[in-house]
Amino acid sequence: MCGIVGLLGKTAEIRESLGGRLTPMFTCMAARGPDSGGLAVFNRPLDDSIRRYSVYSPDRNQDWDGLGQLLHNHLSSDSLSTDKASKISDFQIRAIENHATIIGNFDTLDLTEEISRFCPALRILSVGRSIEVYKDVGEPAEIARRFRFDSLSGTHCVGHTRMATESAVTPAHSHPFTGGEDFCLVHNGSLSNPYMLRRKLEREGLRFETDNDTEAACRYIQWKLAIGATLEEALHEAFVELDGFYTFLMATHDQLTLVRDAFACKPAVVAETEDYVAVASEFRALAHLPNVSDANIFEPEPEEIYSWPV
Amino acid sequence: MASVEEDIVMDLARQSLRDVNRFLHKNGSSLSGKHVRILNPAGNHSVAVGLNETMTVQIDGHVGYYAAGMNRQSTVTIEGNAGCGVAENMMSGTVHVRGNASTCAGASAHGGQLFIDGNAASRCGISLKGGNIVVGGDVGTLSGFMAQAGRIVICGDAGPGLGDSLYEAVIYLRGEHRGLGADACEEPMSDEDYDLLQKLLVAARTNYDPQQFKRIASARTLYHWNADRDQEY
Fold first, then answer.
1. Which residues contact residue B3 at a Cβ distance below 8 angstroms, ignoring those fewer than 6 apart?
2. Which domain holds residue A25?
């Protein structure tokens, strides 16, 4: 059992208060997933050349200012070719406890590679022009408090509360999982063939961070996207190739997408109004949303793709 | 019909679920014939489970899982949607969902009647052991799975695998199905079917004509092991 929540704001008012609306949904679903929690929040994409990196440190007292200085020195050093370095003249770090968002002109440089060489203890949680990710182990309510989920704004967001059943409880095993740029996925359920998928994808050159089944699904779908499929096309192939139980809630910079497997035994409820689309594992997480009594409330059908544009 | 001043009002925004359910259980026969309203269910699970008196209970809103489960004698009306397992293992009485019901509505019910005005999701009436279910709208995949006794009336359409591995429960379907499950088959309607169906449709306050329904029941080919089938069903 795990909890899934998602919210897409259609109005400026909901987008402004996105985190405030989402947080009670998230903490309510902690009952379904008390061991870890995470959230991906999307904002309007930055300029083409800019990237946001969400970075995780295992050290809650991480010295992010010091890291920024070291990173600046590293990026301007001779170890990088000058044409790269000239484009990375400036970047910002916004940090909150053991998470930070690094924003800069990184379109020609893979900061993931640099950080893995330069500061291997850090992990990149997400890359893109739109996405930011926060995730850790512990009580979801505490995670929401630590990272001030209620103060976040954005166009849409996807959250997850985890009750681990098939792999370890670590920060890296928590959801959301991400792949490529501006794509994330959360999962309630368990897959039966994650290792088969993983071997297939490793032969294609993809690298995995964990032995988690959801990571296999996320990388599978992202791989399909990377070779040119739309998310809808990727999901139709996933229906065939993925074996097991799942409700997946996914997001890209411009859509929120929900699917359930053929047996639909993992729950999901959608409430849609003129102001928002809200998704949760159980209705009680949605019960306190504004005007929910007037919402179109429904459960997704098995193997149907539900997508909402931003 | 109880007069307004006899209504007992409970509010889940002010009282804990446990207090509400305990009140409904502990007051025994003193609640007999009484009308209880439960306000602000807010999708909570297990609202009004295990009732065992001839009271009527009205729940003003959407409920979570297992609402009115194990019901005996009581009449419970849910003025909203119900989560999975509404009226599961009901023994007698009536449960009426005015909205839609999630998966496994009426699962394993031994008796009583479950009316769902809207749609029911997958596995409606799974393992039904008696009693009657009337769904005003559609039902999802694998409804009536392994149902042993009782009746499931579907006024709309049915998803794939309808009536898979049925025992002696009977399904009456007004609309279309997207495939019958293993061993389910359509059979001719008898006068007895029409009479029974008429009574159920009236009880559920629907206006459909029994002549519009078809009967789906077990072909009974799974009752005995057949080695020659080589597990192909």
1. none
2. 3-45+139-309
